[in-house]
Amino acid sequence: MVVIKGKSTLSDEELVTDDEMDDLDEKVSGSESESEDEDVKLSEPSKNAIFNRDGLADKLQDISWPENVGWIHKLVIDFNQEQEVDVNDDLTRELAFYTQALEGTRQAYAKLESMGIPFLRPPDYYAEMAKSDTHMEKVKGRLLAEKRNIEEAEERRKARDSKKLAKEVQFQKQKERNAQKKAAIETVKNWRKQRKQSGFAGGDKDGELDMPFEDGKVFERSNKKRPGVFPGDRSGGKGRQPLKKGKNGPEKKKFKRESRDSKFGFGGRKGLKKQNTADTTDDFRGSKKGSAAGNKKRKMW
Amino acid sequence: MRMHQRDPKRTLLGWKDKPEAKESEFPEVKETEQIPPQQGGFRNKEKVLVTCSRRINYRYRHLMLNLVSLFPHCKKDSKVESTSTKGATLNELVELKNGSSSLFFECRKHKDLYLWMAKSPSGPSVKFLVNAVHTMEELKLTGNHLKGSRPLLTFTANFDKDTHWKLLKEMIIQIFGTPKDHRKSKPFYDHVFVFSIVDDHIWFRNYQPALGMKGILYLNIRGWFSHPNSTTDGSLVAVIDILYFCQSQFFYSNISVPHNETDKIARGGLDKMTLIEVGPRFCLNPIKIFGGSFGGPTLYENPFFVSPNQIRALEKKQKAGKFAKKVKAKTRRKMHELSNPLEPDEFADMWKE
Which chain B residue is nearest to residue A77, measuring alpha carbons? Predict the structure, then answer.
């Protein structure tokens, strides 16, 4: 809250000295962060403000209702606030209002109940409300949207967390694997050293470590031939169908197509299929025709 | 309209109750007793005229319309030019409409809202500056209540602290309270007005009581008002979390029909009661109280009041002061340099052999 020193600063600005100017500036810098409609107050009451207590009391007497008017006409509840409320603290201020209203309503309802007056609307009493249904629809929409936003944010947070966790697990695994590898290499080194120290004593075979990767076969594909599967066939021979009896046109074509699909593959990456293997180099079945008629460019020269 | 013989006498200046008649003829009515409608002989026939000035801006106009929708005992009138003679015009208007009081929303410079609250025909009248306006249309105010049901009025005890507050309280009771048995009012009590004096301002709030869990929604509104995460109060944050759990169960069924409760409150029902804010909100800063209606002798002046015009002028001046200060500092420096010349440098011609 901005506080102005007195009326003098407002009225005779011309007489303000440098020092006072500094003072004012400090105040401004303090107040700039606050919102515009923050109300300003004089720090001390102005001297010549009128306060006619007798006149006020007279007027009060004039307008007030007769004293014996029943409570039901006024519906007034006084609430005794225990402590001073700080205006600038929104939360406590609103809480004070809330408690005041709550306490007041409780007292009022107790009174009404003791008088036997109905005070809550029965469920079948429909009447115009202060806010229209369309407006309440909007209110509801907003609340739901808020709820949804919160849920979504929660979900995002969870996903982020799980991702982080997964990364960590992956890292751990990698570390473990590296450690294993290192250990394996270490053992081999040790074994070699030992062997050297013992002067290759046990001959060639005896000192061999029985390690699965020593025979060098681990990284090769199994040489087992799969029946009916051409090399490089990724479908594993499934493209090839059992022979069919009828050798009519479409049937025959189908068979051809199938066999070709099985041989050359259908779909998938081509890179591996086009490589030569020992089998294909030995195979001269299709080469005669191709070399004679295939390359027209070469023939021209 | 039939006046009872034993009624207090109504003079030109309002109700005058004779003290000798009071003792003998009016038995003290106990509050716990049930009062039949005609007993007591008093009938409140308050009628409030609500108008605003021309060139009012939309927010304040909405506030006015909100109040019109809250008061079944009011009459809205067309806008009034806010000139120096507006008092006479308004008095005439109130008389024409048979009003006994009036609320006049005067907007100046499209920013400042002044509220005149006047009793007619013989005063008093009060001029307020209205701050911190929130209308009922705001979506964060989720409550709702019957249109035209009579409000419960709660006042803080500091309304009885001083004479002018007492007068204001009486005026507010008469103007904001809906007369009993008003033909447009509804016979239930489902909202409560809060009038609270904090920092010499009158703060107004309007709540709807809710029996049951529904009221937890209210915290949602408070969460909006100032950010819940910024508070150190952990419990509040926790309750707001509960809100989203409860909402799904209670909100859908109850928001359009807020009172599924029966008349009888279950034991402990009052303890479980919560409130939902309906709006509007505003804060009244009393400036002056006059003896008459829209005029007359000044009975009270707020000694702390600074008009928003003065505040703005001061702000402008301070901004202008920045430049003036710089100029002044420059001249001061020059003067200082002139008055304290540097000593001649003894090594100045050292290398000029």
Answer: B154
Predicted local confidence at residue B28, as pLDDT: 43
Share of chain B above pLDDT 70, in %: 72
Is the CB of A8 inside 8 Å of chain B's CB atoms? no
- At residue A200 the predicted structure's pLDDT band, cuts being 50, 70 and 90, is confident
A25: left (phi over 0), alpha (psi -120 to 50) or beta: alpha
CATH number of B48-208+281-301: 3.40.50.10480
Q: Mean pLDDT over residues B345-349, rounded?
A: 80
- Taking the C-alpha atoms of residue A68 and residue B29, their distance in angstroms, rounded to an integer, is 7
pLDDT digits (tens, 9 = 90+) for B79-111: 998 888 899 999 999 999 999 999 999 999 999
Give the nearest partner residue to A28 out of B26, B300, B318, using CB atoms. B318
Write out chain B residues lying below 8 Å of A98, CB-based: 207, 218, 222, 275
Confidence at residue B41, expressed as pLDDT on a 0 to 100 scale: 78
SS percent in chain A: helix, strand, coil, step 5: 55, 5, 40
Task: List B residues 72-111 in contact with A (Cβ-Cβ < 8 A).
Answer: none
Kindly state whether A20 is in contact with chain B, defined as any CB-CB distance less than 8 angstroms.
Answer: no
Question: Are B195 and B156 in contact, with CB atoms under 8 Å apart?
Answer: yes
Among B125, B156, B245, most A C-beta atoms within 10 A, so best to mutate, is B156
Residues A33-72 pLDDT 10s: 333 445 567 777 777 888 989 999 999 998 999 888 889 9
Interface subset of B 165-184, CB within 8 angstroms of A: 166-167, 170-171, 173-174, 177, 179-180
Residue B259, pLDDT > 50, answer no
In angstroms, the Cα distances linking A63 to B6, B75, B267 are 19, 21, 41
Distance from CA of A261 to the nearest CA of B (A): 59
Say if B229 is an interface residue toward chain A (CB within 8 Å): no
Closest Cα of chain B to A161: distance in Å?
A: 21
Q: Is A109 on the interface with B (CB under 8 A)?
A: yes
**Nearest-angstrom CA–CA distance, A234 and A277:** 15
